[in-house]
Write a structure and sequence with these properties.
carbohydrate derivative binding (chains A, B), five-stranded parallel beta sheet, EC 3.5.-.- (chains A, B), globular, Rossmann fold, 324 residues, homodimer, four-stranded parallel beta sheet, 2 domains
């Protein structure tokens, strides 16, 4: 990892370490919120300190009672310009919370509004450890290790150096299937996604940002555990599902949903995270790496759809075109 | 309120009052989870004690680190038989948490598994104060008042006696429009819902239980604040939205989403909670009553769709028909 990233992360982690943290808030919008939610998932499972995810504008308007001087607020925006998130950073800071901005633009309004900045490189040829996933996971496991030291987290932090290889290998291994998926599903007007645990947020991101935003395909990210309590009645032979079979404790929820969906729909695609390549990652750390890798694999499914629908992922009809 | 309900609620509230509560968990599935989430919303906004919502199976599998002897776990299942929620009650109890079951069946497995039981009457001609909303809101505001006494909560508890009239009046006032809505939208294959704050959960419930489960209409409950960060690109002249314009601090989020949706879609239906009848409710308490009333109003929109699609809300293809 480049020194500037190491320094930024160290500063932020040290600030957290020096406090008596009462709670964590993860605040962002859309895909950025979904990315942050992976951190919320791990913190909530491994730490005895509460954490909560908010979409930025709701955070500011609801003004949660727990927000204050002993809060850590982690905010994220790719460009660092998302107005609601910039506002949320100012708001959190005015309440005395420690604020950490995650963004690719160190000079952005978000990074200027927050007390601590953790910036990542983007499409500049950098190694993945200096990219959005490498930097964010380093921050999260740095915080975990600071608040509740564990040799496991030390190993995660070291093995994150394999991300570049893991991304490349897994992209290569899944490319053909993702391309084929795009061909098979290019006429679909609606595609449901499903997942649980840390992977629910990948499903949410795929639904909101890739299917709805970039491909204009109707969608809903269903939690695998919620599927049987309402949504599953929509299942039929011609209803498409893209389901993440996650790693970690909630895998049985995904398995149950997949078993059902495959019985009644002919259009079920399963992305099995346990079948990915984890070279260089210790067996007991796999569940921490799965969410980091799943994103780049899923992205290829969107590329496949873009290719075969002739609808590039870069096309928008509202964003960048008007005020809203 | 009937004495048995008063006694059950008092016992549960006293148990919470006697503890040093570290956190609240709201645990259920589907529509029951969405109902509980209203409590989570109010607690999180008004108390300096963290709370969190879980779908039952994820709660058990993730095993959040914060769960323990100082936790209060509120669980809900209409029939009290939802296996995942019964399991969650046993799990929470095994961890030493105080468990409170909310159900219509006092003899159900859920009520037997939990330490405290708060049961409500259902379709037996009882007044709404003894029904699911009256009893649950009495529990939540009883807890709020026990943990952080406030004359405001006293007034909410007293004015909940108006629920029956509020339900009847508002159902009457919105019946014609809901019926007409069903006629206008009977051919729609997909209907998006939207909301924020306490009302997001109403949108979720309407999407999962009424549209997808009962009417087999595709849907996704979009958070009004998230709409602009992905989902809004799906908006087009022929894409239907049913949007709850909520009361309370996040109303501006709904207004922004409505303004946008109405500009680009010809099929936007707005249910404005501020326009409902609040006779007997103090001005400053309206935002606590809106979520209680919105559910019965929205239900009529589903009735309208059922009437005009000829698809009764009671029809299922999987539930009650097979093991899954």
């Amino acid at each position: 990892m480049k020194t500037e990233h190491v320094n930024q992360i160290t500063e932020a982690v040290n600030a957290v370490k020096a406090m008596d943290v009462k709670n964590f808030y993860f605040v962002a919008c859309g895909g950025s919120m979904a990315s942050l939610a992976t951190g919320d998932y791990f913190l909530n499972r491994e730490l005895d300190i509460p954490s909560r995810v908010y979409t930025s504008n709701e955070f500011v308007h609801v003004d949660p009672k727990g927000l204050g001087e002993n809060s850590v607020v982690i905010l994220r925006s790719h460009s660092g310009t998302t107005p609601e998130t910039v506002e949320a950073a100012k708001f959190a800071r005015s309440k005395g919370a420690v604020t950490i901005a995650v963004s690719m633009e160190v000079e952005s309004p978000l990074c200027q509004a927050a007390e601590y900045v953790v910036h990542y490189n983007y499409k500049d040829g950098s190694d993945a450890i200096d990219g959005e996933t490498g930097v964010y996971f380093s921050l999260i496991f740095g915080i975990l290790n600071a608040v509740s030291p564990n040799e496991k987290y030390d190993r995660v932090l070291k093995q994150l150096s394999h991300l570049e290889n893991l991304f490349e290998t897994n992209k290569k291994n899944t490319f053909d299937r993702a391309f084929e998926y795009g061909k098979e599903n290019k006429r679909e007007k609606i595609i449901y996604t499903m997942g649980s645990g840390a992977y629910y947020h990948q499903a949410y991101s795929f639904t909101s940002c890739l299917l709805m935003e970039m491909l204009w395909i109707h969608s809903n990210a269903i939690h695998s555990g919620e599927f049987f309590h309402g949504p599953f009645e929509i299942t039929d032979f011609d209803v498409p599902f893209l389901i993440i079979k996650g790693d970690g404790p909630t895998r049985p929820l995904d398995e149950r949903a997949i078993n059902f969906a495959e019985k009644f729909s002919n259009k079920v695609e399963v992305v099995d995270v346990a079948e990915l390549d984890y070279t260089g990652v210790d067996e007991d750390l796999r569940e921490y790496f799965g969410p980091a890798i799943a994103g780049v694999v899923l992205r290829q499914y969107a590329d496949g759809l873009a290719e075969h629908t002739g609808h590039p992922l870069s096309v928008r009809r509202y964003m960048w075109k008007m005020e809203y």
